[in-house]
Design goal:
Strand order of the largest sheet: 1-33-34-35-36
Low-confidence stretches: 1-28, 685-691
Number of strands: 39
Largest sheet: 5 strands, mixed
Helix content: under 10%
Number of helices: 8
Radius of gyration: 24 Å
């Protein structure tokens, strides 16, 4: 969709592109290869040029230090390392600074985000990453603050509220540094009528410099700029009443040579286009990469991976920057493998599509991407026409989800934590009557699948992809439904954690496993590499945040799994303590009499309000406590105090004040019923992994 908007093919003004691609007034400061200052590391590639640890000596790699994290709820986050200090934000953006050679705590800052978040706590789980620039650490909070801390002391230097405190938006993604600005986006379009944007602030003062909206608002209120006026022509109906979506909840990238910021936008609000834009249209700038002038915030170009998107195939995954030979000429490109299963190579100066091919086997929504128009050639049945249910691959989890992919300029390969998973899509009972339900987790406009439709099992694998040939170089099958983010290095290494609790290192050119370590806990976060005093380290945050069945037996439990930083170096000699028994039993009180009617009434309540964290049918995957193993649901008063009264808000458990006493009782009886099912050795019915 480069250079176009909507089905009518509205041309983008060439003057905008010319203005956006000018070089910055002064060259950016050189980066220190010993540091890892932001989410994507050096050159927006999740690549470290360090090669002291390499495929030839990796057998000497050992644990140099570890740090146990007491902050909940998880440590699914990307750390950074600058100037001999290791920084991370665990749980609800609690920032830690450690000595990068020993793991000794230097300072800790807690923004008290759960208490400030209110209902935003229901949809958000914490921090995906932080950033460093000019002696400052930047973190976003679930309640919507962007905070600058002194890197040396942890003292707050400035704080700004960057989202509406009253709507369903929240921040989990990392801030992004673009020259003298720090950028932040947010999420929330899965849960509430939210309209996306990204905002740039002055690094030193926190003053807002610009804001770019990603979808148009109500035309009657006017448009913020020409880009929004153009985008509005690709929507129909009264989309603004649904917010529109398009949130920038995860990946961005910055190219200092072109002075462009690239933002990846999310799905529509709701997912189902028949509701938000009933007359069709491409719905710009959903599921797009947008190039924005870093100085002014002006639109330059866009490429939309899924026009008229309806499956939650957002473009918020990694936007990696590389220089690649195309037709005998070296060109600056974007490498992008979003949820929809196609790997895209895009000219990052112009937005022109260079190539696109399927990187997973099961892609059933489209036959191919037409290179002339840049548009997908869709399979008509994939849009579940006339309300007919259909199984579509990939699922909303995506062929590549939020776990980071990486590109190694030495091997020329891009490494992807790839997923094979499908889902049943069907319309809800009444499209015209559909509304966002306050307090409900997934407000996606997708109906309940028929019980008889069973999705075939999927899987996941580590994939090495050659973007020049658009073909796989090698792949490694992995256990479970998902796998962890990736690091690649100048030492021909690909580093990844996985659901089994293994930190594994593969040779980047061949895929041969050359080293592993038992982390004692599943891993989703991407590793990083840095150096201090000439010694190279590799670090990873270990913590499994699964929702529902992970494929690992037994499931990693919220309460018993260890959350740690593990840091490795050549000739490291440290060891981890024994784990002990990490499996807790299902609890029961034989005197508790389950009312079948109440339990049945609690089933949809649990699905709407609880399953996103506690797992489908109560089968938790580590994101939150397994309530079948908790004593709390055995006592009605304690259960009501926690769920309805907010007794554990500071621990990350939201308050559901709108639930009546009868509804709380129904939830209690449903949870106890699921515990009895588990005690009887039965599998809960219709268990499906959800994101």
């Amino acid at each position: 969709m480069s250079g176009r908007a909507g089905r009518g093919g509205i041309l983008i003004a060439a003057a905008l592109a010319a203005a956006g691609c000018s070089a910055p007034d002064k060259a950016p400061p050189p980066t220190n290869p010993a540091d890892w200052p932001g989410y994507s590391g050096h050159g927006e590639q999740h690549y470290s040029p360090l090669d002291q640890i390499n495929a030839g000596n990796v057998s000497r790699l050992g644990l140099a230090w570890s740090y146990d994290i007491e902050t909940g709820p998880n440590a699914y986050t990307a750390p950074i390392a600058v100037g001999g200090v290791f920084y991370f934000a665990a749980g609800y953006s609690v920032v830690h600074a450690l000595d990068a050679t020993t793991g000794r705590l230097l300072w800790r800052y807690d923004p008290k985000a759960p208490r400030a978040a209110g209902d935003k706590l229901r949809a958000s789980w914490g921090s995906r990453g932080i950033a460093y620039a000019n002696g400052k650490i930047f973190t976003g909070t679930t309640d919507g603050r962007l905070i600058a801390l002194s890197a040396s002391t942890g003292k707050v230097l400035w704080s700004v509220q960057t989202i509406d405190a009253a709507d369903g938006s929240y921040i989990t993604g990392p801030p992004w540094i673009a020259g003298d600005k720090v950028l932040i986006g947010f999420g929330g379009a899965d849960f509430a009528p939210v309209r996306g944007y990204v905002t740039a602030y002055d690094i030193d003062t926190g003053q807002q410099e610009w804001r770019f909206w990603t979808v148009p608002g109500n035309p009657a209120a006017g448009f913020e700029n020409k880009a929004m006026e153009m985008a509005a022509k690709t929507w129909t109906g009264e989309w603004w009443k649904y917010g529109g979506g398009g949130t920038v909840w995860n990946a961005m990238a910055y190219d200092p040579k072109l002075n462009l910021v690239y933002v990846g936008t999310g799905n529509g609000a709701p997912w189902n286009q028949k509701i938000r834009s009933p007359g069709g249209g491409d719905n710009l700038f959903l599921c797009s990469i947008i190039a924005i002038n870093a100085d002014t915030g002006e639109y330059v170009w866009h490429y939309q991976v899924n026009p008229a998107e309806t499956w939650d195939y957002n473009a918020a995954m990694e936007i990696l920057l590389a220089d690649m030979k195309v037709g005998g000429e070296v060109r600056p490109v974007i490498l992008h493998a979003p949820k929809n299963g196609f790997f895209y190579v895009i000219d990052r100066a112009t937005g022109k599509l260079i190539s696109a091919e399927k990187f997973v086997k099961n892609v059933t929504w489209a036959e191919r991407i037409d290179l002339a128009s840049g548009r997908p050639v869709e399979v008509a049945e994939a849009r579940f026409p006339d309300g007919k249910p259909v199984i579509v691959w990939p699922s909303p989890v995506g062929a590549h989800a939020a776990e980071a992919m990486a590109h190694n300029p030495r091997t020329g390969l891009t490494y992807i934590p790839a997923v094979e998973q499908g889902r049943v899509y069907v319309d809800p009972p009444s499209l015209k009557d559909w509304r966002f339900q306050e307090g409900q987790f997934i407000n996606n406009g997708i109906g309940v699948p028929p019980a008889e439709m069973v999705v075939p099992p999927g899987g996941n694998f580590l994939l090495a992809w050659n973007p020049a040939t658009q073909k796989a170089a090698w792949s490694v099958p992995l256990v479970g439904a998902k796998n962890g983010g990736l690091l690649t290095t100048g030492g021909n290494l690909v580093v990844q954690g996985n659901v089994t609790g293994e930190v594994a290192i593969y040779a980047g050119d061949t895929g041969r496993k050359i080293w592993s370590f038992d982390a004692q806990t599943g891993i989703l976060a991407q590793p990083i590499s840095y150096a201090v005093n000439g010694r190279q380290y590799i670090s990873v945050m270990v913590s499994w945040r699964g929702i529902g069945p992970s494929g690992h037996t037994p499931e990693w439990e919220y309460r018993t799994q260890k959350k740690r930083v593990l840091t490795f170096a050549l000739d490291g000699r440290q060891t981890l303590p024994p784990t002990g028994n990490m499996v807790t039993p299902i609890v029961d009180d034989p005197s508790f009499r389950i009312d079948p009617a109440r339990a049945e009434a609690g089933k949809p309540l649990f699905a709407r309000h609880c399953a996103l964290c506690h797992g489908p049918q109560g089968l938790s995957g580590g994101a939150a406590p397994d309530l079948r193993k908790a004593g709390t649901p055995l006592d009605a008063q304690t259960f009501a105090s926690i769920v309805g009264g907010g007794m554990l808000v500071d621990n990350g458990m939201p308050r559901f004040a709108e639930l009546s006493a009868g509804q709380l009782a129904a939830l209690q009886h449903y949870i106890r019923g699921q515990a009895r099912v588990a005690l009887a050795g039965k599998q809960p019915e219709n268990v499906r992994a959800i994101r």
